[in-house]
Amino acid sequence: MKKILLGLTLLFCCVINLYAQQYDVAFNSINSLLQNNEPRSFRNAVFITENVYLDNKLDSIKWNAACNKLGTLAYSWLSNAVGTEERKNTDLLKNQAIFQVLKDTTSIIIDSPARIVYLPYEYNFEDFDGTKDWRNTLVTTLLTSHKGNCHSMPYLYKIIADELRATCWLTLAPNHLYLRNYIPEKGWYNTELTNGSFPTDAMIATANYIPLKAIQGSLYMDTLSNQQSIALCLVDLAQGYERKTHNYYDGFILKCCDTVLKYHATNPNAMLLRAETLKKLYEREKANKNDNAANTYALMEQQYIHLYDLGYREMPEKMYKAWLKTMKEQQSKP
After folding, report:
1. How far, in Å, CA of 223 to CA of 323, rounded?
2. Which of 246, 248, 254 is nearest to 284 (CA)?
3. Which residues does UniProt assign to the signal peptide (predicted)?
4. Which one has a higher pLDDT value, 104 or 228?
5. Distance (Å, rounded) from C-alpha 252 to C-alpha 106?
């Protein structure tokens, strides 16, 4: 029995070491994309993050082809919907085309009367946060199942927008991600893919229980630059590593969070994950009577206080589920 337990322990350690190596490679690749900050870097960062979580089994050619197909579909809709080349190049219409492809039934005539019909992408209300299966938060799953959440759907939207050279900005809210768009003649507007709507800032702030202080401190409802969007993928990378290994102690999660905060100092997801990781580390060090425990505690406390000072408040799960129920009811309306 002891030999069996020893063998299983060694096997587990080997698997964890393999994950650590794979995730280090992924981190270095995304870090390089961060430094280069090119238009397609976000798409590549998303692929790297999801591929390593799926044990490097994704086919990059097929994955990119699936994304490109949606870009081509959006451009086809755009070409059919508007007349002049000048109008086709406006941000408003490009974003309208992307929204149409993702949230409405789209048909393309290939040889009259034959046509290809593409069904809209839907919100996965059954596992909206990946609790049952983390793969439900991935763009990869969205592409294959046509069901996603407020993480994968805005990501896919931005991937298509980058392909069409349409401007849009990922924007954070508590436990949520949506898009902001800008029209020179009209100003800013929001795109909510959960139920396919365009809520006002006031509606988002109220529905997500966002205090004014959190908005003023750029914690929430602030547009992310392309570089900050790439950095957000490092939060995903760290969360995937957490799911895979439950290893809070080797410094990988902290390395990801620190890198994110270098490019996006007020990223609430990175700060919260950093604080919770420091808490796990402190608890282990305290149990082992490690001399560094007091220093770790001070760093953890400092991070939690900084989050609070910026206006962070945890949205109660009951309220979040009530908001999701509202979104689901609105989506069901014709």
Report:
1. 22
2. 248
3. 1-20
4. 228
5. 43
Query: Taking a C-beta distance cutoff of 8 angstroms, is the pair 194, 150 a contact?
Result: yes
In tens, the pLDDT along 142-169 reads 999 999 999 999 999 999 999 999 999 9
Show the DSSP H helices in the chain as ranges: 2-36, 41-53, 60-81, 85-88, 91-103, 139-145, 152-164, 201-207, 212-216, 226-245, 252-263, 268-287, 293-309, 317-332
Give ∠ CA 178-56-20 in degrees, rounded to 5: 90
User: How many of the other CB atoms lie within 10 Å of CB of 24?
Assistant: 14
Instruction: List all residues 6 or more positions away from 192 whose beta carbon is below 8 Å from its beta carbon.
Output: 178, 179, 198, 199, 204
| pLDDT exceeds 90 at position 319 | no
User: How far apart (Å, rounded) are the C-alpha atoms in residues 314 and 276?
Assistant: 14
Name the helix (H) or strand (E) containing 191: strand 187-191
DSSP symbol at 225: P
pLDDT band of residue 127 (cuts 50, 70, 90) is: confident
**How far lies 90's CA from each of 166, 183, 187, in Å?**
8, 9, 14
User: Hey, is 121 helix, strand or coil?
Assistant: coil
d(CA 308, CA 52): 33
Q: d(Cα 116, Cα 308) in Å, to the nearest integer? A: 51
Task: Read off the amino acid at residue 17.
Answer: N
Q: Give the pairing type, strands 106-111 and 114-118.
A: antiparallel
Strands 147-148 and 187-191: unpaired
Query: Is-contact 315 175, C-beta < 8 A?
Result: yes
Structure tokens at 62: 């097929």
Please, which pLDDT band fits residue 332 given cuts at 50, 70 and 90?
Answer: low
Maximum C-alpha span of the chain:
76
Are the C-beta atoms of 142 and 148 separated by less than 8 Å? yes
Across 282-296, average pLDDT = 96
Query: CA 40 to CA 67: how far, in whole Å?
Result: 12
